């Protein structure tokens, strides 16, 4: 009950300070202020959710086969949890983990991304104001150069019982190796390569609206951003034409503090170079630039929202996660072909598809090898929903009623001699 009350107070303080917290995100991350404000509300909702879940960690009494004993199941906190978070959601990725950990009774050590430490420190100040005891929520910012060493310490120190990481698959594999030495509990939310399938039966206008939201949120820099558009041949040309018009009409590149901006800068020069590399590779193999395609005149980290057609599965942009404002469109013939292309990746975080055929919806939703499916929806994240992937996209789930289980151990007590 006490943990629940402190988490609830932390949530209320986030709402009281939402404008300042959002401005911190825009300043250090670049995302438009409206998106940053949305992130703060989303971020705070995890504290509210887990404040409520803190009082709902139930054990069990199991009927025993022997008359003189009783079987009890207790749930206890795992212990110290090390939380390593990315720059693209510098507030929400913290509260989604920390809310669950504190609700379960764990203490946490947060290592925020080197690009965005201020959001983590601001949350720490509000945690203090909420009455969360010193030493329960700890933040250790560090430089890019020190990040590998700090990550290794967190994963190898025997005092740490649990690792929760959101970031790239490559980094996740390194942390898993480090954590194996002491057999720590591990949660991993790793890279995605989300397919977005538009079938002939789809409502094309709704699919375009969903595509715009799914692809260009945070300039294409979210874990569940669409990375590959697969569009059936019957509506392919109509979709590409309407998508291009929507991009040109509705997306505005600029400073995150400008009210009309929908597309801020990418996080750094390296990110821009990757987008350029993917476009150049695709064009060299026959892809066509429908709109965009180059750096924006505003500055070196700004890039035009880009749409490519005539894309094939041999191109880099359909084999790697771009993490930028690039939408490549592949034309396909049959449902089986689309599912095969979608499932060819070694990762499986989110997947989306648009269809108005009920039988097809059931088939494809069950066949897609991802942890989360959006059917006729381009934005699927919510506090009530289990967030996580399959294959090399990670281990475990965050948020929802399942999220607190990642920070609890199950203990069996055999009570004999009765």
From TrEMBL:
BP GO terms, sorted: gamma-aminobutyric acid catabolic process
Compartments (UniProt record): Mitochondrion
Pathway assigned in UniProt: Amino-acid degradation; 4-aminobutanoate degradation
Stretches assigned to the Aldehyde dehydrogenase domain: 1-413
Pfam assignment, any one: Aldedh
Molecular function terms from GO: succinate-semialdehyde dehydrogenase (NAD+) activity
Catalytic reaction annotation: succinate semialdehyde + NAD(+) + H2O = succinate + NADH + 2 H(+)
Cellular compartments per GO CC: mitochondrion
Keyword set, alphabetical order: Disulfide bond, Mitochondrion, NAD, Oxidoreductase, Phosphoprotein, Transit peptide
Enzyme Commission number: 1.2.1.24
PANTHER family xrefs: SUCCINATE-SEMIALDEHYDE DEHYDROGENASE, MITOCHONDRIAL
Physiological role: Catalyzes one step in the degradation of the inhibitory neurotransmitter gamma-aminobutyric acid (GABA).
Oligomer status and interactors: Homotetramer.
Similarity comment text for this entry: Belongs to the aldehyde dehydrogenase family.
Name of the protein this chain belongs to: Succinate-semialdehyde dehydrogenase
Encoding gene (name): Aldh5a1
């Amino acid at each position: 009950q006490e943990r629940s009350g402190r988490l609830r107070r932390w949530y209320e303080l986030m709402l009281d300070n939402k404008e300042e917290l959002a401005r911190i995100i825009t300043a250090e991350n670049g995302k438009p202020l409206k998106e940053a404000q949305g992130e703060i509300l989303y971020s705070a909702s995890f504290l509210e959710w887990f404040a409520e879940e803190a009082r709902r960690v139930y054990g069990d009494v199991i009927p025993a086969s022997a008359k003189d004993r009783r079987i009890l199941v207790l749930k206890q906190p795992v212990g110290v949890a090390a939380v390593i978070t990315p720059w693209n959601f510098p507030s929400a990725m913290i509260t989604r983990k920390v809310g669950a950990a504190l609700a379960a009774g764990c203490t946490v050590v947060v290592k925020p991304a080197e690009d965005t430490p201020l959001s983590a420190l601001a949350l720490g100040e509000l945690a203090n104001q909420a009455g969360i005891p010193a030493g329960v929520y700890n933040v250790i910012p560090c430089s890019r150069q020190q990040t590998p060493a700090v990550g290794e310490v967190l994963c190898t120190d025997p005092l740490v019982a649990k690792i929760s990481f959101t970031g790239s698959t490559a980094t996740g594999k390194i942390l898993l190796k480090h954590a194996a030495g002491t057999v720590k509990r591990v949660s991993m939310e790793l890279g995605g390569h989300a397919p977005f399938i538009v079938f002939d039966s789809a409502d094309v206008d709704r699919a375009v609206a969903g595509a715009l939201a799914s692809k260009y949120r945070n300039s294409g820099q979210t874990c569940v951003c669409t990375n590959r558009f697969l569009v059936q041949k019957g509506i392919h040309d109509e979709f590409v034409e309407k998508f291009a018009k929507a991009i040109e009409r509705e997306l505005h590149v600029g400073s995150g503090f400008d009210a009309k901006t929908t597309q801020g800068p990418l996080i750094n020069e390296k990110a821009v170079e990757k987008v350029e590399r993917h476009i150049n590779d695709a064009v060299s193999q026959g892809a066509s630039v429908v709109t965009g395609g180059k750096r924006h005149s505003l500055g070196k980290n700004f890039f035009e929202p880009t749409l490519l057609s005539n894309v094939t599965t041999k191109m880099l942009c359909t084999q790697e996660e771009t993490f930028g404002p690039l939408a490549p469109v592949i034309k396909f013939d049959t449902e089986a072909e689309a599912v095969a292309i979608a499932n060819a990746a070694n990762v499986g975080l989110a997947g989306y598809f648009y269809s108005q055929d009920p039988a097809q919806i059931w088939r494809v939703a069950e066949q897609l090898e991802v942890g989360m499916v959006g059917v006729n929806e381009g934005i699927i994240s919510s506090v009530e929903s289990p967030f996580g992937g399959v294959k090399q996209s990670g281990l475990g789930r965050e948020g929802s009623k399942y999220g607190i289980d990642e920070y609890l151990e199950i203990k069996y007590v055999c009570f004999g001699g009765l």
